[in-house]
Design goal:
By secondary structure, this protein is of the alpha+beta class. It has three helices and seven strands. Strands 1-2-3-4 form a four-stranded antiparallel beta sheet.
């Protein structure tokens, strides 16, 4: 008796797996390249390499200048309130730029004008503090942060309220004026 290693099923074909399966849905891809396309590309690559070699001595100086500009931007941050809460997996940051959520390797960022509401919820039992960011288009993004102690919930609520009072309502006043 013969045994095979691996799957004995064949790969499926059809519109569900390949949109090009439906005629007219995508433009046909030609397998051939025009004969005159390669020499032009080779000339462009050669000319770009020549320009790069000439500009190479100036490149480190330009990058040093951009580093100085980035440092200057970081120093110009306002002295307003900042709220940050994190645990081993999740992180929530609210500052003058907006709100940033991170969970494991996933993250998202919202400017203050993209936020409709920020909701907090502390459980009756347990140590998981939930912060939910609502957007005007009826989407919400919750994140749970585990506190070291339940006493941190009141502290986090106060700090987050200070940030929301400073930045969230400030953006609404600018929109109406």
């Amino acid at each position: 008796m013969e045994q095979r290693i691996g799957s004995s099923s064949q790969p499926l074909e059809g519109a569900g797996f390949d949109p090009a399966f439906v005629p007219g849905l995508t433009s046909p891809v030609s397998g051939e390249k025009p004969a005159d396309a390669k020499p032009e590309e080779a000339e462009e690559v050669a000319s770009e390499e020549a320009v790069t070699e000439e500009a190479a001595p100036e490149a480190p100086e330009a990058s040093d200048d951009s580093d100085e500009v980035d440092e200057a931007d970081e120093e110009e941050t306002p002295d307003g309130p900042v709220f940050e809460a994190s645990d081993r997996r999740a992180k929530f940051v609210a500052d003058h730029k907006g709100v940033r959520l991170s969970l494991d390797d996933q993250s998202c960022e919202f400017r203050w004008d993209e936020i409709g509401a920020v909701e907090t919820e502390s459980p009756r039992f347990g140590k998981r503090f939930t912060i939910t960011v609502h957007t005007p288009d009826r989407r919400w993004y919750p994140i749970e942060i585990e506190a070291a102690a339940r006493a941190r919930f009141a502290e986090w609520e106060t700090e987050l309220d200070a940030v929301l009072d400073a930045y969230f309502e400030e953006g609404d006043e600018n929109d109406t004026a």
